[in-house]
Amino acid sequence: MKLFERMPDGVTVDGKFYKLDFDFRNVLKMLEFLAMEDLMDDARDYLALKCLTKHPRNIEKVLKAVRVALSLIPDNAPQGEKLTSFEQDAGLIRTAFRQEYGIDLFRERLHWLEFTELLQNLPNGNRYEEVLGIRARPIPHATQYNQKEREWLIMAKRQCALHLTEAEAAKKYERDVGNVFAGIMAILPKEEVKTANGE
Q1: Cα–Cα distance measured from residue 186 to residue 176, given in angstroms and rounded to the nearest whole number
Q2: Are 111 and 23 within 8 A, CB to CB?
Q3: Cα(167)–Cα(87) distance, rounded to whole angstroms?
Q4: How many alpha carbons lie under 13 Å from residue 6 in its C-beta half-sphere?
């Protein structure tokens, strides 16, 4: 987003402007509904858009425009390992915003784009950033010198681990299996790779 641009307060679809409330709480609720796989698509989309407006209209097109306006990742886009959860890390995020910016997320309104920019640019030195660092840090290969470091990191990762939903756990398993297979294929001689691919 350019410095001279105003934060959007709605989207334009087929020449018509739809005014929407992009407060971060509303967008988080919307994302929660969009992640509900046990709802019918039409009901899920209606409830998701209702988080931003009292009168949802032209739902499919408006939601698509909302994703673009708010730079939300499409469901089918490739994603890396999940490092944070707005639900599980809510307390850490609120504390970090109060500590670093003096913003009380219980009381203050923030546009979604402002909220995400501040969240992504939190400086080091707060517990939230420390937890993200632990989750992202790979466990080093064992050597005769790093046993204590490995034990500490493994324990810290357990304490900070995200509780994945069934859908997220299934995606993670799929990704991990794919990574293992890719690793095996990378170390096999070329002749064996051709055989494994049925060539």
Answers
A1: 15
A2: yes
A3: 16
A4: 4
CB contact at 8 A, 52 and 66 = yes
Tokens of 166: 């069934």
pLDDT tens digits for 16-43?
A: 999 999 999 999 999 999 999 899 999 9
DSSP 75-131: TTS--------TTTTHHHHHHHHHHHH---TTT---BHHHHHHHHHTPPSSSHHHHH
Spatial distance between the Cα atoms of 27 and 75, rounded to a whole number of angstroms: 16
How many helices and strands (H and E) does the chain possess? 9, 2
Q: How far is residue 48's CA from residue 45's CA, in Å, rounded to a whole number?
A: 5
Put residue 138 in one of left, alpha, beta given phi > 0 → left and psi -120 to 50 → alpha: beta
Domain ranges across the chain: 10-69, 90-160, 166-196
Q: How many CB atoms lie within 10 A of CB 44?
A: 17
| Predicted confidence (pLDDT) per residue in 120-150, tens digit | 999 999 999 999 999 999 999 988 898 999 9
Give 23's DSSP letter.
B
